[in-house]
Amino acid sequence: MSSAAALPPIMPPPAPLDMPVQRFDGAPPPITAPLPRPGLAIAPEDILVRRVLLVLVTGLLATAAAGSVEESLLSDGFSIGDALLLLLFFPLFAWIAFGFVTAAVGFWLLMSGAHPGTTRAPRTDAPLTGCTAVLIPVHNEDVDAVFDRIARMGAMLERTGQGDHFAIFVLSDSGEAAEAEERAAWAALAPRLRVPLYYRRRTENTGRKPGNVAEWIRAHGGAFDHMMMLDADSLMGGDTMVAMAQIMEQRPSIGLIQTVPMVIGATTLFQRWMQFASRLYGPISTAGLVWWSGSEATFWGHNALIRTSAFASSCGLPELPGNPPFGGTIMSHDMVEAALLRRRGWRVHMIMVEDTFEEYPPTLIDQAVRDRRWAQGNIQHLGVLGSSGFHWISRLQLLIGASAYLTSPAWLILIATSIALDLSEGGGSVRAATSAQVLVTTLALLFGPKLMSVIWAMANRERRASYGGAGGILKSVALDVPLSILTAPVIALTQTIDLIAILRGRKSGWAPQSRVRDGLALADALPRYRWHLGIGLVLVAVSLLRPMLGWWLSPVTIGLLLAPWLAMWTARRRPGDRLAARGVFRVPATPLADETLQPATASPSLAVR
Question: Which single residue of 17, 101, 159, 413 could bond 221 by disulfide (Cβ 3.0 to 4.6 Å)?
Answer without folding.
Answer: 17
